[in-house]
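Q: Convert this sequence to structure tokens.
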Amino acid sequence: MLKRALLFIIVASFFVFVGCNNETQMDVQQHSRRLVIDLNGTWEIAEGGMDMAPSVFEHTVPVPGLVDMAEPAFEEVGKKSPKRQAFWYRRTFTLNKTVPEVAILKIHKAKYGTKVLFNGNLVGEHLSCFTPALFDVRPFLKVAGQQNELVVRVGADRESMPESMPTGWDFEKYFYIPGIYDSVELILTGAPYIERVQIVPDIKQSKVKVVAEVENVDARELFDLHFRLREAQTAKNVESGAVGIANAAGKEKLIVNFEIPIKDCNLWSPEEPFLYELQLATDGDEIKTRFGMRSFRFDKETGRAVLNGKTYFMRGTNVCIYRFFEDAERGDKPWRAEWVRNLHRKFKSMHWNSIRYCIGFPPEIWYDIADEEGFLIQDEFPIWLLSEAPEKPVAEKIIPEYTEWMQERWNHPCVVIWDAQNESVTEETGKALQAVRNLDLSSRPWENGWAEPQSPEDCVEAHPYLFSRFFNPSWSSTDFQGLRDVAKISGVPNLRDTQRKLGVPIIINEYAWLWLNRDGTPTCLTANVYEKLLGPDSTTEQRRLLYAKYLAALTEFWRTHRECAGVLHFCGLGYSRAGDKPRPEGGATSDHFIDLENLTFEPSFEKYVRDAFSPVGLMIGFWAEQLDAGSQQKFEVVLINDLHELFKGPIRLAIERDGKTIVEKITDCRIDALDRSVIAFDMEIPAEEGQYQLVAELILKDGTRVRSLRDFKI
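A:
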């Protein structure tokens, strides 16, 4: 590697003025060589056919956003309608200097299908709804001072897409709202052009491998690729230098590989999300990207995740962003960075370190924030192929989308699992992931829904929905009639035969089947469940309390059995379609917020479920609903320690009534790092009949009390 001082050009090679319809100036992110022009903001929009842009645009809409945010509003948005086949977006802007050698329009995400016209010229189409569209617009840009017109067409509904393409079909969604739902930017830069870069951390050797794809736009014979590595937060310089590129003549694209040592590197983890920034530059271009020094894999022998060479237990939740898109309270929240950051911090307050972005990808700012706040992301591509799925995506169409997806995300330390699909038994996703998995030089594991895992290094998902037995009476089973029968359940969740073939680690990323809407009413999947558990006249307070206690108990059960690499509850953010109405009016699932703007959880959920996810946690191994008065009873309390340090402290087991302690015992406990232990208590049951509560309690080093509870009758 040729090392030399890195010379930065302070004066920009050209300047840009951008106006919205020649009136509003736009923000410009200006580097010394590359200009990234922010084209977000208010666009014009109109409805029409697929082939010809409308002549009049009488509505406006925010970008990024969705079409249902247009003013004045369109009717019947989100479902197939005779009113339109497509929506057409329009905006104008002006450059005030010469167009450089490279001009790329990047639409980060739009659905359904993207067609771009620039100054009346067809630039191209991009069918994918979930990955970036990149268009070379240099031939169509007008000279300095002249107005440029950008028109983008998106299909009005998912049925505008070919059947062989993934469209994000979801059995539990009701509206498929189109729109440009992520940022739009114009990249103006010179040559040689750095198209993309992949950073491959090597924490054992304290170095990173850099793989840069460079387009030799001006056909140079040789050039230098400069680099500067800094700490992202402090801007402290770590290493700088340059790589000489020779024999480039006649090569349109070059792959440049080199390594950068990082002395005393800081590792990235959810507990310490330390980020670095790499800056690459040629004579005419410059690019910045952040990354974390982080490794992640699964250990087939132990069934555990391994983060930075150490066993790591995944505790977390799910975000169903495409369901949230149809939530009545959604507004502009998914695009407000402060709200998204507060959401992730709220998740952190529940002891969660992992999130599955479920059946769909949020805007890119979510990944930036997950990097900064510290979460492990299971990134799930939006394919869900139940028997009635109206789409039939094939590997040939999936492969390009998987490729674009990986290229967009592979430098995010938060993304640790490529999740090919949800709950589908298909060969197509397996074929597709095998075709692309070698592109990720960090070798992240894959998860392939209910289909066969494709490598011994991968993982599988399990969805042990015990209470789904009450959803439909025909599903009822005599071996499970309620929480009392959890004792009969194996700590190993059921898998399909296809999933068992390689014996890879399991992640439980859905369980319970006890959802309530935000107003406390059952969802369309849980009305029968609550009638079975509480009777036909249950109150909101009763349902919320039962949900919280049962969800906490099930969380304790799956965590303390230590049979899975992670336990992720479903879900932290989704939609809420209030009322126990049947489909299509009633929502199937929901989250736990009672105030979405201020991110206030339902209090019982926060009180009980937070303890169930404590890194040092416990479970009362008692599930009976009734005990005999005056009898002797042995209770076992299971203790777990997710931390890499020994825990020692007192543990208390008490029988309480109306909040008052009737009987209690206290003893000392010891839980080795990453270990599990069981403590038995012999207790005399009170003689007086009535409702009681069994309470096990740990006091942590900071004074926090972690509890496990069971209600029973004497």
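The first strand starts at residue 19 and ends at 20.
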